[in-house]
Design brief:
By secondary structure, this protein is an alpha/beta fold. The protein has helices spanning about 15-25, 70-80, 105, 110-120, 140-155, 220-225, 245-250, and strands at about 1-5, 30-35, 55-60, 60-65, 90-95, 125-130, 165-170, 180, 195-200, 205-210, 230-235.
Length: about 260
């Protein structure tokens, strides 16, 4: 199996290196990732400037291709030009921080997986919840991620164009996940906060001072399950059509616009 591994934290991110070392147990892994951090860049792509690439060695362990672009660029370019053949699986991550709830919309990690789904490839976005009072163990989290991915591939299977968001809880060294839960995305809004400052010329500017937390939500959501220590599995789709409204409006008689 040929696996494309990418991310949004940049090709030198520790989460990518840790996940690479687990994914090589599943197949041949090719790394094509952004040259610099692209967190919260969403599904942006590069159109008006060239995409520069550079081969780099990661932690003296493996070689990847760094792309001066966005996560979605990396997937497009890898599939079109850089890989020896079409990958059997695209994995994006491991992201430093959870991608649950509304974060799924902003996430470059998820955007890379969605881009793969656009191209008809099965894909998985992998993210690790971080907590200030818990040591971040990418190696252990990657082991849990790989074992979960194996179950997806072996038990249920991933279809072409199917995309899954996989989030791992923050765990202490003596803690284990509470289990694996298949859950829906929480759609409650996250209210950002901004700190107002003034520059030397008297102009106001604002810094986003928000600190992401797993707030209160319904029990069947990704946010609730991750907060309770579960590995969360959320199948995603990129069709944003509101089919209920389509069914209602298509029955309505629409008047031809008059010029």
């Amino acid at each position: 199996m040929l696996i494309l591994l990418t991310n949004d934290d940049g090709i030198h991110a520790p989460g990518l290196a840790a996940l690479y070392r687990e994914l090589i147990h599943l197949g041949e892994v090719h790394v094509v990732a952004p040259e610099t951090v692209q967190s919260a860049t969403g599904h942006g792509i590069t159109l008006t400037t060239p995409l520069l690439t550079n081969k780099v060695t990661i932690e003296n362990g493996f070689t990847g291709i760094a792309v001066d672009g966005r996560p979605a660029d990396c997937v497009k370019l890898a599939v079109s030009k850089l890989l020896p053949r079409t990958p059997d699986l695209v994995v994006s991550g491991m992201n430093s921080g959870a991608n649950v709830g509304i974060n799924v919309i902003y996430s470059g990690t998820v955007a890379a997986a969605i881009e793969a789904a656009f191209l008809g490839l099965p894909s998985i976005a992998v993210s690790l919840y971080l907590k200030n009072d818990v040591h971040t163990d990418y190696k252990r989290a990657s082991l849990f991620a790989r074992q979960t991915i194996e179950q997806m591939l072996g038990t249920t299977g991933l279809l072409p164009g199917q995309c899954v968001s996989l989030n791992l809880p923050a765990l202490g060294p003596d803690e284990n996940p509470a289990g694996i839960k298949v859950v829906r995305q929480c759609v409650r809004p996250f209210i950002d906060t901004y700190e107002q400052r003034t520059n030397p010329r008297g102009q106001h500017y604002y810094w986003n001072s928000s600190v992401f937390t797993l707030g209160d939500t319904e029990d069947d959501t990704d946010v609730a399950a991750l907060r309770n220590g579960y590995i969360t599995v959320t199948p995603l789709q990129y069709d944003l059509t509101n089919y209920r409204t389509v069914q209602q409006w298509e029955k309505q008689k629409w008047a031809l616009p008059i010029p």
